[in-house]
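The material for today's practical consists of a large collection of protein records. Backbone structure tokens are a discrete shorthand for how the chain folds in space. An example says more than a description, so a record of this kind follows:
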Amino acid sequence: MSTTQRPGGTLELAGHEIARLGYGAMQLEKVDRAAATAVLRRAVELGVNHLDTASFYGDAVVNEHIRAALAPYSDDLVIVSKVGARRVDAPVPLALAQRPHELRAQVHRDLTTLGLDQIAVVNLRRADQGPGLIASGEDVVPIDDQLAELSALRDEGLIGAIGLSNVSTAQIEHALPVGLACVQNAYGLLDRTHEDALALCADHGIAWVPYFPLGSAFSQYPSPTDHPVVQGLAAEHATTPAALTLAWLLAHNPCVAPIPGTRSLVHLEENLAAAAVSLTPEDLKELDALTT
């Protein structure tokens, strides 16, 4: 077993022990190979062993960055992918790819571009609600058809476990018999719309992997780092607003495993510094009271 210290402590994901502070690699589609390699290797050096990617991030460019930087992979590195969309050459560079055969094709592309025999976890990104693309017409696919295909891929050994992304509490409940490793939903200090879904996951031992934990370009997900309360508490703790925000997530529920993304070495280290932030009960009470 590795003796590497994992930032934020650990939890179990699909039979693997992962750092609770992971890394979302989407932003690496915007940098060259050298810059991506530097960030990925530094994340691993600092104890991160949970990487989140997708073949539609930069049309597999991010997967290729990961392979170039980290292959041959260590046994304790857990690479998680997501299916449900594909890259297109258009003003909006993504299109939905929700049909079962499309999900299978995306898994195979992940395997090829990452150089893996199995993807540890594959998350099904549903398109019933925003942010981003919403399914209509022929793009509306029953979730049972999708779960059946992912279950077949799991039975074939091509994926290790199944997760869901961008889903409702009812959809999580519906999918429980399939066996879920994690749920990825937009969630953070200022937007706790999915609090009931988080509680359901905690009750069933399902990892809650929030995306946009530090906000996003979508207007409904403002950055908590701009909030004066967050900035004030960060100053008191001699840390950054980003680290303080992530520390709140870690303290909020032990099943939470954020995957903040960045293409900056400085921001990577600032994010992982959240592991060293110890929030008092008074801090938590003040932060818990913040919602949009």
The two ends are 42 Å apart (CA to CA).
